[in-house]
Amino acid sequence: MIEKGKSLLLFLLVLLSLLQSYFLAYSMPNMDPKVKTELDYVKAEPLGAETTLDKLIFPEQMVLHMGNDKHTVFYPSTQPYYKLILDKLRVREFQGFQQDPIDVVNWDQVRRRDEGVELRFGRAVPFQLLQQVFKIDGDFLFSRDSINRIWIFSSKDRDEVRTFFFSSDGRNVYESQRADITGGDVKGYVGFGQYWDPYSSIDGKVYTPDKPVTRFKQMQVNFSRYTTEQMQDNLFFDPGTTRTIQDRKNGPQFYTDGKRGLKVEQNGGWMSYTDAVASTTGDNDLMDNVSAAVDFVNQHGGWNGRHQLVREIVPENGSGIRFQQYYKDAPVVSGNSITFGYMQLTLQQGDVASYERSLIVLGNEETNKKSRMLPGGEQLRMLLRQVETSTAKVEALFPAYKPSLNKDVLTFHPVWAARMTTGETVVISDSAPPPVVRQAP
Hints:
Protein name: Regulatory protein YycH domain-containing protein
Number of domains: 3
């Protein structure tokens, strides 16, 4: 009798265990937290195109040295020659670096006599970032240095191709002793410049065209704007908690969720975003900050056209990154009437503390195209001398577009722009209509 009782008890225990297993499998209680966190919010739909870091790093200009003191300059707008040369160099390998003082080579003699191509980046680019674009050996002692020029030339003295990377300190160069570039490669690069506009320079620092340039047109471009609601959806984790601090019909608009702030001005054309909760201590790694800045723009507004990583700004706390906007492969410089043409972010250990950008989205329709002429020769050189002072010298000259706003269109005016040694970019000369060529009677 006792044995039967034990068997019945064992059967009931097994049955109870099976029932518990059933309820656990098919009737699991909801274990989600009652309070939502920032991670619970749905990611906003992207607004603009995404990009990658390697597409944001490219030379500001290429100087082609053709021997016999003949030169020309390619800008990103010089298509397809600029792109052909850059694409060819991207697949070459640069290895075996050796550091030398900058006077290891007579550079004035090289530029006048030897065929070569000089890549100028405008702002110094760390080797770490250059490795995103070129196949550079990173396993050498000075790989944490920054570079502002790469010069590749066929040396007549040594009957070989030499490749030098110029340190931003102005005192050292790094020669790649195992670069897979031949004399035929250099001759091919230089060949692209044989029939292009001739440029000249007194000291090899700033090159100017010998004649006026007529390759750029003035044009009007249609545009739209990102709305304030779209930017709130992209920048605040819960737009529903955002409140308006100040909303003026003709002035700046301010919004906050208690931790982050958004300021919209210029009639909805420019925004400034701040995040007060970003970390404020610790070291800032440039590579981490640049990568984080690219990712942040990808997710919060995207890229309207081509941009270039132009410089690192160093505020009191954090690291500032600026991206220069291009149109028609020429940089856009802001006019007095509108702030437009760049994005700027401040980061602290990879966290974005501030974000400034235009909310204007350029369209594809170009109208009212007009031929324009930019000055050259002695007239341009005189204009360059006029903007220089004892403390500010011209370090780079380039064609650019200056925008002006008129209702629902932006007008892009071709100009010569110069970057000064102080870091400021100034407009040297506006363009003018080309002279009318009158037919002989």
